[in-house]
Amino acid sequence: MVQPILKWAGGKRQLLDELYARFPESYDHYHEPFFGGGALFFDLEPANGTINDANSRLVNFYKQVRDNPEELIEQLESFDDPESDVDPYHEFAHENHKGKEIKNYFYQQRARFNKRPYGYEYDTLEEAALLLYLNRTCYNGLYRENSNGGFNAPIGRYANPDWVQRDRIRKASRVLQNTEIYNGDFDYVLDAAEEGDLVYFDPPYEPMSPTANFNDYSQEGFDRDDQERLLEVAQELGENGVSVILSNSGVMYDLYEEAGFEVDIEGATRAINSDATNRDEVDEIVATNVSEQARSEGGQQAITDF
Ligand SMILES: C[S@@+](CC[C@H](N)C(=O)[O-])C[C@H]1O[C@@H](n2cnc3c(N)ncnc32)[C@H](O)[C@@H]1O
């Protein structure tokens, strides 16, 4: 059981037992097309398979973790405290891309991380190190982009932020060794998954109400058409003999039930809004095509609890 490295919106650590309860007795390869922080993947430590996310900087991060863990750690060790003064030897020591004055090291790091979306040349290892640095030092620790794809979370308040995370990086690197990492739309899994495989879908949740706005993980939003496309992909996988487990918000209950999936409301109330006075409570569903008879009795979670 490995801990996720990044904190990510919609992280599924609190749902793990419910997901494991639906695992089939056995499966060949494991696929996770909406990876984010990869809470289930890292807990499960699958022997092989594929992961994917639409966010290119997130995907670059996991490739660096898999292929260059020690270089990544070295870069992270070279970074300074977020409240420090800017480093005059690095780019963006005084102004960001928009000509706005930079006052401290955190905002300098943020401007450097935003080289890619603003069309500057960037280094993939440095970008990956910056992603983890910002994740550990920004407000609420959550990834947020503006409409240009620029990361825009402000500095957080941490007594002693630890952005190096040697142990988690080394362990995650080991788990990722036999995993293919994709950066695209979730539908790649139609080609990647074969009969006998298992797919876990954790898409951006369909909002419960028109005002809820918690599906903007990246500049590509995930709309109702994407939700319908996802249902079709899940059905096609089922027809190909692939086991599918999916989590989503309660509004998707009927759609999955009508399509023949076994659907349960988890009733989990998740805090999805960083504003503590305005936390929406969300019904969560877990849908699967794995029949009760075909399920294992608990999977890895039960074994580690033993
Ligand atoms: C709910 S999060 C996944 C959370 C993850 N299970 C965890 O434990 O942290 C959804 C992810 O889907 C990604 N995404 C959005 N649209 C996508 C698409 N069309 N195809 C693949 N991934 C997409 C987002 O970038 C985000 O990381």
Query: What is the CA–CA distance across the termini?
Result: 13 Å
Radius of gyration: 20 Å
Heterogens:
S-adenosylmethionine
- Overall number of domains: 2
Helical proportion, percent range:
25-40%
Largest sheet: 7 strands, mixed
Q: What is the CATH T-level topology of the largest domain?
A: Rossmann fold
What pattern of helices and strands is seen along the backbone?
A: HEHEHHHHHEHEHEHEEH
Number of helices: 11
The structural class is: alpha/beta
Name the CATH class of the largest domain: Alpha Beta
What fraction of the residues are assigned to beta strands by DSSP? 5-15%
Mean pLDDT, to the nearest integer, reads 90
Q: What's the architecture of the largest domain in CATH terms?
A: 3-Layer(aba) Sandwich
Low-pLDDT residue spans? 214-219, 270-280, 301-306
| Strand element count | 7
* Shape category: elongated
Tags for this entry?
Rossmann fold; Adenine-specific Methyltransferase, domain 2; 2 domains; seven-stranded mixed beta sheet; 11 helices; 7 strands; 10% strand; disordered C terminus; binds S-adenosylmethionine
